[in-house]
Amino acid sequence: MNRDEARRCVHEALLQVVPDADLDHLADDVPLRDALELDSLDFLSFVEQLSASTGVRLDEVDYPRLTTTESCVLHLSGAAVG
C-alpha cells in the first residue's frame, strides 16, 4: 500500500468513528485522540475499521504506532497484508 492509499484509508476509518471530523484541517503530526476527542472505545473502533478496510492486521502492540495521521500512514505503508 502506498502513502496516498494509506492516508485515504486512515481518513475513511476516522470518518466512520467521527463522521463530522474536519480532516482537511487536521495536521499530520497532531495526536488523533486529542484532536478528535477519541475515547478508548472510539480508538478501538478506528483501529478495527482501519484493519478491516486495509486487510492489515493491527494488534494491540501496534497501537503506539497509530497516534497521528502520519504515524498511521507510515505504519500502513510499511506493513505486510495479513
- Any idea of the CATH topology? Non-ribosomal Peptide Synthetase Peptidyl Carrier Protein, Chain A
What radius of gyration results from the CA coordinates?
Answer: 11 Å
Mean pLDDT: 93
How many domains is the backbone divided into?
Answer: 1
Q: State the distance separating the first and last CA atoms.
A: 13 Å
Query: Shape from CA axes?
Result: globular
CATH superfamily: ACP-like
Report the sheet-strand fraction: under 5%
Largest sheet: none
Q: Quickly count the helices.
A: 4
Uncertain segments of ≥5 residues (pLDDT<50)?
none
Structural class: mainly alpha
Work out the number of β strands: 0
**H-E order:** HHHH
Relative helix content: 40-55%
CATH first level:
Mainly Alpha
Named at the architecture level, the CATH assignment is: Orthogonal Bundle
Describe this structure in words.
It is a single chain. The protein is mainly α and 82 residues long. It has one domain: ACP-like (Non-ribosomal Peptide Synthetase Peptidyl Carrier Protein, Chain A, Orthogonal Bundle). It has helices spanning 3-17, 32-35, 40-54, 69-78. It starts with a helix and ends with a helix.
Task: List its traits.
82 residues, mainly alpha, Non-ribosomal Peptide Synthetase Peptidyl Carrier Protein, Chain A, 4 helices, 54% helix, globular
